[in-house]
Amino acid sequence: MHSIGIDIGGTKIAGALVSDEGEIITDLREPTPAGDPAAIIDVVIDMIERLRVGTDVVAAGVAAAGFIDAAQSTVYYAPNINWRHEPFRDRLRERIDLDITIDNDANAAGWAEFRFGAARDARDMTMLTIGTGVGGAIVTGDRLLRGGFGAAGELGHLRVVPDGLPCGCGARGCIEQYGSGRALLRMAGEIADAGGIGLQLAAERDRAGALTGEIVGRLIADGDAGAVHALRQLGHWLGQACASLSAVLDPELFVFGGGVSVAGDLLLDPIRDAYLAHLPARGYHPEPRFVVAQLVNDAGVVGAADLARLHATAAG
Amino acid sequence: MHSIGIDIGGTKIAGALVSDEGEIITDLREPTPAGDPAAIIDVVIDMIERLRVGTDVVAAGVAAAGFIDAAQSTVYYAPNINWRHEPFRDRLRERIDLDITIDNDANAAGWAEFRFGAARDARDMTMLTIGTGVGGAIVTGDRLLRGGFGAAGELGHLRVVPDGLPCGCGARGCIEQYGSGRALLRMAGEIADAGGIGLQLAAERDRAGALTGEIVGRLIADGDAGAVHALRQLGHWLGQACASLSAVLDPELFVFGGGVSVAGDLLLDPIRDAYLAHLPARGYHPEPRFVVAQLVNDAGVVGAADLARLHATAAG
After folding, report:
1. Is A167–B282 a contact, with Cβ atoms under 8 angstroms apart?
2. B chain contacts of residue A167, beta-carbon cutoff 8 Å
3. Distance from A66 to chain B by nearest Cα, in Å?
4. Given A206, A248, B46, B57, which residue has the most CB atoms within 10 angstroms?
């Protein structure tokens, strides 16, 4: 039975009709009418109506960045779309006759990796999505860990440095400030300032006016020493965070998604090194695997569709 | 249907026949033959045989400090009893005809609080046991979180300070070094050295030769400013750790057990203050409750018995 997944991002809204084996049958894409919640709802409704034409659809799942309540109906807080305590599911249900659930976007992406991607053979997975920020998703004993209020898996806000760098969440020292794409640009900028291995980074920065993810990614792929060093610094912080997460969650494997994860082993090797150096009671329990995500672009819609399908069939 | 719980501590082994409502019918206690695994097995077998006389017992659960594998059969590492990769369940089953499971002692205690104690109305609980060290247990969606290798919930080894105080686990900066009973004695000793509000602590230390948990606990109960200040420092570290744990696990409530938790609100108030000061995205999701454990002395045997009963009845 097919279901529909919608992923509301900061710049675009993606939608797909998805089979129960995680295959995308049809997909759609629209720009996000940022800052206009009513227009976002219009786009979502329109996408669902277009995707369900001529097909028997069991449910639709909608994913967005932010805190979703445990009942999967209310958005407590969605920074990208300026929502606060928005009864999103009810707004959608008023206009469409279909079982609808909402989910955090990192949870949806993590669920897709667990069901159909890098973690499909595991029962206990921890995923970190390294994009502009750091998102997270936890699967334990084959279930998505949602927490008592629906906000579990906000792994970007694990604190790694007391009184550390200020974070957008209002706290300080969150791993998001040391392990995200934005942190990578900051570290690359510091290396550029220092000269030496940073000379190429500095030259590209001067040419473009500012370092971007595209520039640093290209230099990493070219093997530039300064850019690779920045990525190693990032990986070391992420590995230290994973050591703490192992003490709490003890996953079989860690999955890394998001734009930075395309660096592959250049990212995974320093993560693994730092993890082993900081692991409590190293040697007394098996080591988890560290892998990159497989469904990078489609994970959000595939996971949202699958979670909605499971929710609808369990309830029915 | 009754089941049996055994809790192997560093100094004593406790055993009990427990009803399916968590009531202790009979209990036993023996000194731990420390450092002699064969003698420990003899004591455990003898206790089970004595507790099952004349009763229909469905299973026995044995709890011990250390890493237990995901199949609940092998002790990877048990610091108190000098075990490494010990096939403990098989050793017991060779000698007794009964369904037997083994569990980490903090998990057993946490499960007892979840089923019959401070968290009996919750579905998502995080428990920290503040004894000599810091133990942990996580229940999420009504299930004990064991992790991929059985070692989840080792919350004492969440890192709170990079390159911080060395920990017995081989890593540095673990919350166990800032939030345990041992840390409380260290903080109380520092306050005693500083004079001022530490004068009473210093006087008691000089009289007894060293500060002990009993002395510091008594001074806390008496309202001594120095001892209460040490407890507040401890609570602030624990509250900061809980802020990170909320980002990961998002529990409805945090339960604090172990000897230090008898301080009640004197411990909970600074924990709550520090939690709120360090919580990511404070104000955008509901606040968890902070409570002390209710089954302090019996939690290990009651939880081990209940976990064994559930395991046996689910498998049968």
Report:
1. no
2. 280
3. 10
4. A248
Distance from CA of A220 to the nearest CA of B (A): 27
B143 with B286, same domain? yes
Q: What's this model's pTM, rounded to 2 decimal places?
A: 0.94
Same domain, B152 and B285: yes
- A141 and B143 in contact by Cβ < 8 A? yes
> Per-residue pLDDT tens for B223-253?
999 999 999 999 999 999 999 999 999 999 9
Of the candidates A148, A172, A282, the beta carbon closest to that of B251 is on: A148
The total number of structural domains that make up chain A: 2
Residues A230 and A246 both lie in one domain: yes
The ipTM is 0.94
Closest Cα to residue A13, out of A55, A46, A57?
Answer: A46
Which domain range does residue A53 map to? Answer: 2-112+297-315
> With bands split at pLDDT 50, 70 and 90, how would you rate the model's confidence at B79?
low
Name the strand (E) or helix (H) holding A39: helix A37-52
Q: Is the pLDDT of residue B273 over 80?
A: yes
Q: Write down the pLDDT at residue A68.
A: 84
User: What CATH number is attached to the domain comprising A184?
Assistant: 3.30.420.40
Considering only CB atoms, which chain A residues are within 8 Å of B246?
151
